[in-house]
């Protein structure tokens, strides 16, 4: 249940309500809200005089639901906005991993050349083997910060676990919580303490219900700037790396109020399929696309097979522009 | 292995090769072909003088593979062509089930009004419960035939099992083999004996490898007119009916030579998601779309929740036209 | 809804009820039953005087449910019984495919030596490729019949599609409907017309709900002798061929009244795992086990990797006996 | 590649090898080992004189593989041993969450009464919703420690994220890394720094390959005391909470050298199926079983539906004893 409190509520009463209802207390726009478990369907009558409005839910998808907030959340990055009623589709590009200054600068220049806004690059790689390249860590974050300064790009990078979450929050413009980390409350609760935008990737074994509930960890802690990212789920099919769940995206568009970014690169796992899938994603009218591109994919230290080279990325961009136009979307 | 025989091969030698290699013999265009298991990687040297060419494969996806035939197969329905180098995307419409003359005629008029070419409607419904509506059977086929005559539309309808396969072959223009019947050799082998186009739907638990091998049953029997249809696979996600596998479609576009039709209606299971998904499918550049539409969906005897009403179908068509134009595709 | 009719119901009234309720009419033991869609929750009051009892259901799992018949169905094969309150666990053995007389006779002798009752062997193989060995067909059924005569064994063999269902019904003691054919109404309806036991294998993409509804096709047609067989479902895990769903078996034991046979050979796909899994299956207290064994697995024409050799089968039998004893089960 | 170093290797050479091969260095029993990526198949010839032995692998499942260490690892908890050649099967019991002193003491007494050794109880619950009960945190760990002192039981409890991993390491005898946290390198690397036993649960979307690689994070850091726990994977079937993957367990038994504990409670999600599944697990000959039991399940603050009450747990124990005896296993 979400409860909108009266403006003049006494702090003593508020504290009692929070305690008795085991509720989160946040301010959202001009509203003062309490959020309880969706199991609570009715407010004790003693509290009724303290509230202006209330919303009852079937499940714990509450703050992120259209039945609470019917308009899409807008994320303001300063130079660019995501979601809301902007009709923007951000095309985020960059390598899987930040590997070296020259490499990431090459990516930054590519984006700049195409008038794009956001650079991606992993520094803390959530590899499934200890024997693989694990990322440059904080050194990578510093290289990304350099690119922000030099090229005026916004930066998105992934947090792997709670031990370095503060560094990622500090040095990025959008904090990415990866598919393997999205249940991590150490990360989610830290991201709830900031106002920086957070992009949560759906785990490959994660239901849509759980996905939106991960967002609730951030939203109920007071950070409204959450973006959802579908990047493929694990199914029986092995010819492709994962299965991009666009039916799930249609569900999110219908029932959630959060902006949506799609990641066809990880879903497909092979560069040959990325252009066609990216067009499909764009045609769904989503708020963003995140595409892996590397100056020299076959030399990449991670995800070599799925990254586009810069020539392919430019060609894809060129094909997306008329498609975006015909759909009334701005590719930024 | 596929073997291209010399023109002047003696029938005695041909018979011996077929027997010894346990091979299928077909004529394709002007070629005389033998097809064996892909386990055979080398031809016995005694036969070498009888062949013009040979292709070796990693798997039993042979006739349907780009490594055998690099161009997309064209299906000629007379009034309309599918695949090949036509840049056509057929928009097939109609109800889940043929229920009554008035209903199916309403569907036929809708298609005619929009200048579309192919009418769908199920007569033998592969329901999972014996207690559900099972379809009108041959009576339904007769109603569809009437629509063909009256409106000049082509007809696609589904065969449920081998007991009525001859009727479906006789009365349709495209034989649909449904997701639950696609391993049925009684059906596949019967469809191999005709030259009528066959659209094979991927089973919801079927791998891409098995999917293309189902096509091989028809192709190796001598019918080259096979279309593949992706309609959603079964995954852990239950908010939507199935999960449309567009990564799999990208794989098929890369490795198979068969035209592809997509069915977002069955994948999604809910009408609200069908328009966005249909646009995504179109943007992938596929050869066809099959969309369920019913004059009055809430009264439908099957799949009530996923059928568009005719107003929604027209609106979707209107949105698809500029998208198709921007992609260089003809919506027919 | 299942309706138990009064003994003296007039045939005119019965016909009217069948027509109006769109119901199946069967005799079960001494009862006269009508079965309608589970969507019908209440009987029209005009019919109330004609009935003795009625059962209402949440889903179309009706005749197969414990809420209709609380005791497990018993299948009587003459020489051996399955299910009911027998505490029997049948250990069915034999090769994947019947390949030759010598081979199948070797299997028959093995079973005889161990005092087992039922011989398996495929004749119509539902291969996913047209280029693989497809089985001996009717010739195989004849060889199995010979083994029945010579060794007093009961025979189970699989029907692939509706074109040969009559032959399989005629020449087997248990008709097997395989995982790929279990939605095939041509087969299911034919099996409903006989009283021969039918073992339905769960499709690898089939939900438990659909699985029991496949049984309803046979039961509602008047054949009560249905056995369910779990043989592994398709999941994201590829180290093993399928994933044996013993949680699903626990659900079936709780909610269905049909005997259950488990097939660890197909689930695992590799002989090394079959003994441990077979013990797990036995410990669940199921009514039967079906294990593939071949005199010389590496020469087998199908499923070479998962078949035990006869030495391994004997060793497994030896280990199962004390386990069965400790569980109070008879291995027959 | 795993490399066994010569005893007398100079530290300068060792450092150079580590650096050049990007290798982990551990001492295991009396051996000095370097572990590199499995991508390295051959040692630079300059290093050959410094090694005694080497093992080459197909994948990064190296230290945990039977091809490196053919015997099962033994975990010594002092009062009880797990794995090795003990023939022990530990039956771990206790509630989903530690809720109160009285509750957890009731569980401790139950185990003591049955001569069992290890008490489970969650303190940091990895709930998927922020609005659910999140566990007692450190207070719960203190209650578990009390039970250790008072009843001589060993304690297993779960770490949710890296923010409290030190507390869990300090206050438990076996550190549990849950299904949602098993990719968390903050946790895995912390557990590699201790010698305390670590039980890693397989994620519900985790492949067997990734599962064993999670163990490699701990093993390659120098902690050999790793146990694997299968607790059900997520599949299309929704009648049960998850699908217990016993085929996967057979694979682990064949290819991994780590002890295995099974968790049928979480897999099934419903108490009615737990006894039959537990017997199946025991019959596979695994090293342990972990079963949720609560003094009053319907009042439990988490997982109410799947916990046995104490009467049911005792009855299950009673049925397991003869089964264990017939299998030559000690239930401890």
What does this structure look like?
4 copies of one chain form a homotetramer. Chain A is α/β, with parallel strands linked by helices and 332 residues long. The first copy, chain A, folds into 2 domains: 2-55; 74-331, TIM Barrel, CATH 3.20.20. The first copy, chain A, has helices at residues 11-21, 101-113, 138-151, 165-171, 185-192, 208-219, 246-255, 264-268, 274-283, 310-327; strands spanning 2-5, 24-28, 31-35, 51-55, 74-76, 81-83, 88-94, 118-120, 154-159, 174-177, 198-201, 226-230, 260-262, 288-292, 330-331. In chain A, the strands form 3 sheets. A 9-stranded parallel beta sheet of chain A has the order 8-9-10-11-12-13-14-7-15. In chain A, β11, α6 (208-219) and β12 form a beta-alpha-beta unit. Chain A starts with a strand and ends with a strand. The model of chain A has no long low-confidence stretch (mean pLDDT 97). Chain A binds chain B through residues 205, 207-209, 232-233, 235-251, 253-254, 267-268, 272-273, 276-277, 279-285, 322-323, 325-327, and chain B through 205, 207-209, 232-233, 235-251, 253-254, 267-268, 272-273, 276-277, 279-285, 322-323, 325-327.
């Amino acid at each position: 249940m979400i409860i909108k409190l009266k403006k003049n509520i006494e702090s003593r009463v508020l504290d009692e309500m929070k305690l008795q209802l085991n509720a989160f207390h946040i301010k959202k726009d001009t509203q003062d809200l309490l959020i309880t478990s969706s199991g609570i369907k009715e407010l004790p009558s003693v509290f009724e005089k303290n509230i202006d409005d209330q919303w009852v839910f079937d499940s714990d998808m509450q703050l992120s639901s259209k039945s609470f907030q019917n308009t899409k959340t807008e994320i303001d990055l300063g130079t660019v906005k995501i979601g809301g009623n902007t009709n923007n589709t951000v095309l985020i590009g960059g390598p899987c991993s930040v590997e070296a200054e020259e490499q990431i600068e090459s990516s930054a220049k590519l984006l700049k050349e195409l008038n794009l806004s956001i650079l991606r690059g992993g520094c803390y790689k959530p590899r499934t083997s200890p024997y693989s390249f694990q990322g440059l860590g904080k050194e990578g974050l510093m290289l990304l910060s350099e690119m922000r300064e030099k090229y005026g790009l916004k930066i998105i990078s992934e947090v792997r676990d709670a031990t370095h979450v503060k560094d990622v929050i500090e040095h990025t413009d959008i904090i990415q919580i990866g598919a393997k980390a999205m249940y991590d409350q150490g990360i989610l609760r830290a991201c709830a303490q900031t106002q920086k935008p957070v992009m949560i990737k759906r785990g490959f074994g994660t239901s849509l219900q759980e996905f939106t509930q991960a967002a609730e960890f951030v939203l109920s802690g007071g950070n409204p700037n959450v973006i959802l990212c579908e990047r493929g789920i694990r199914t029986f099919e092995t010819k492709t790396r994962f299965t991009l769940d666009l039916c799930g995206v249609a569900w999110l568009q219908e029932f959630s109020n959060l902006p949506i970014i799609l990641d066809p690169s990880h879903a497909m796992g092979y560069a040959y399929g990325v252009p066609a899938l990216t067009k499909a994603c764009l045609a769904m009218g989503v708020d963003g696309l995140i595409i892996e591109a590397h100056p020299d994919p076959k030399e990449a230290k991670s995800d070599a097979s799925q990254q586009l080279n810069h020539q392919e990325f430019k060609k894809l961009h060129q094909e997306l522009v008329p498609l975006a136009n015909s759909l009334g979307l701005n590719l930024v």
